[in-house]
Amino acid sequence: MKFYKILEMWYLNNKRDLPWRNSSNPYFIWLSEIILQQTRIQQGLDYYKVFIEHYPTVQDLANASEDEVLKDWQGLGYYSRARNLHFSAQYICNELNGVFPSTYKELLKLKGVGDYTASAIASICFNEKTAVVDGNVYRVLSRYFNINTPINSPKGIKYFKELAQELIKDANPKDYNQAIMDFGSMVCKPANPTCDTCVLADGCIAKAKNLINDLPVKEKKLKVKNKFFNFIVIDNGDFTVIEKRTGNGIWKNLYQFPLIETDKPVDDQALIEDPFFKNNYTKNPELTLYNPEPWVHKLTHQHLHTHFWILNTNSIDNFETTPWSNIDDFAVPKLIHNFLEEYNSK
């Protein structure tokens, strides 16, 4: 039996019951695919339900403010996804008269939509024969066909896409694409795949050669940078100070406490001597370290070693203040959210 037929039959009997699979509405599929980028299904499911409730149509999402969208996204990470989602919703409504793109090529024009997401929407909603290639697909194909070309190399990306496109040409694209993704997630898992009961086992070259644990191959990642963040948390009992991040770095347009970034861990005296601190805060400040051990927040290419410093002062004329009672209204990074939960509970 052909590769695609085996997977389609497996899928009919084993597919997961997920809310977006009950619809061919491209808005729902798009929303689910963006949320599930870099996110486990179980975590993403709750966010999907919130977004569908708050923004049941692409018009509702377009009409929301970016702050509202970021607040609902809070804790999911990779916030550029939320900003792109909002931007693209406005593009669909303002430039496309609210009509969702219906082809792979048109879908690629949406900000934040790449080959994988465009392929998923085009195949699931419009039955276009465009193969999805994500981590699950890389794993299934590399093991079944014993391919050791690195999946994150230009050569590997091109080769696997061409192979995936060849395999889908006679398949039902909607079922086949979802089948191979589910199969990679549920059977051909990164660790402890269920090879003994795998429906593809008879043709799997990696299984025959005992190479399952060696595939897929990845090139070494970029070196992770260490950064040292010092958040200055002003607390005079009633008010604090938070600010919106700007620029194109991490957490764009999210809110945070005033930040002093250093090239190594520092003590309170070093912070007080910092030009930013001298220019904005009182003399003889009462500065207390909240967390003696840094909180390490790990991002893809950087680790943030973070300290929160509590500053008790009434001299905050240089800043726009925010009542502590309103702090939960702002979209903040997960790191700040975790601090606020712990700090406000004491």
UniProtKB/TrEMBL annotation:
<comment type="similarity">
    <text>Belongs to the Nth/MutY family.</text>
</comment>
<dbReference type="InterPro" id="IPR015797">
    <property type="entry name" value="NUDIX_hydrolase-like_dom_sf"/>
</dbReference>
<keyword id="KW-0408">Iron</keyword>
<keyword id="KW-0227">DNA damage</keyword>
<dbReference type="InterPro" id="IPR005760">
    <property type="entry name" value="A/G_AdeGlyc_MutY"/>
</dbReference>
<dbReference type="InterPro" id="IPR023170">
    <property type="entry name" value="HhH_base_excis_C"/>
</dbReference>
<feature type="domain" description="HhH-GPD">
    <location>
        <begin position="35"/>
        <end position="186"/>
    </location>
</feature>
<comment type="function">
    <text>Adenine glycosylase active on G-A mispairs. MutY also corrects error-prone DNA synthesis past GO lesions which are due to the oxidatively damaged form of guanine: 7,8-dihydro-8-oxoguanine (8-oxo-dGTP).</text>
</comment>
<dbReference type="InterPro" id="IPR003265">
    <property type="entry name" value="HhH-GPD_domain"/>
</dbReference>
<keyword id="KW-0479">Metal-binding</keyword>
<protein>
    <recommendedName>
        <fullName>Adenine DNA glycosylase</fullName>
        <ecNumber>3.2.2.31</ecNumber>
    </recommendedName>
</protein>
<dbReference type="GO" id="GO:0051539">
    <property type="term" value="F:4 iron, 4 sulfur cluster binding"/>
</dbReference>
<dbReference type="GO" id="GO:0006298">
    <property type="term" value="P:mismatch repair"/>
</dbReference>
<keyword id="KW-0234">DNA repair</keyword>
<dbReference type="GO" id="GO:0006284">
    <property type="term" value="P:base-excision repair"/>
</dbReference>
<dbReference type="GO" id="GO:0035485">
    <property type="term" value="F:adenine/guanine mispair binding"/>
</dbReference>
<dbReference type="InterPro" id="IPR044298">
    <property type="entry name" value="MIG/MutY"/>
</dbReference>
<dbReference type="GO" id="GO:0046872">
    <property type="term" value="F:metal ion binding"/>
</dbReference>
<keyword id="KW-0411">Iron-sulfur</keyword>
<dbReference type="Pfam" id="PF14815">
    <property type="entry name" value="NUDIX_4"/>
</dbReference>
<dbReference type="GO" id="GO:0000701">
    <property type="term" value="F:purine-specific mismatch base pair DNA N-glycosylase activity"/>
</dbReference>
<keyword id="KW-0326">Glycosidase</keyword>
<dbReference type="InterPro" id="IPR000445">
    <property type="entry name" value="HhH_motif"/>
</dbReference>
<dbReference type="InterPro" id="IPR011257">
    <property type="entry name" value="DNA_glycosylase"/>
</dbReference>
<dbReference type="GO" id="GO:0032357">
    <property type="term" value="F:oxidized purine DNA binding"/>
</dbReference>
<dbReference type="Pfam" id="PF00730">
    <property type="entry name" value="HhH-GPD"/>
</dbReference>
<dbReference type="GO" id="GO:0034039">
    <property type="term" value="F:8-oxo-7,8-dihydroguanine DNA N-glycosylase activity"/>
</dbReference>
<dbReference type="InterPro" id="IPR029119">
    <property type="entry name" value="MutY_C"/>
</dbReference>
<keyword id="KW-0004">4Fe-4S</keyword>
<dbReference type="Pfam" id="PF00633">
    <property type="entry name" value="HHH"/>
</dbReference>
<keyword id="KW-0378">Hydrolase</keyword>
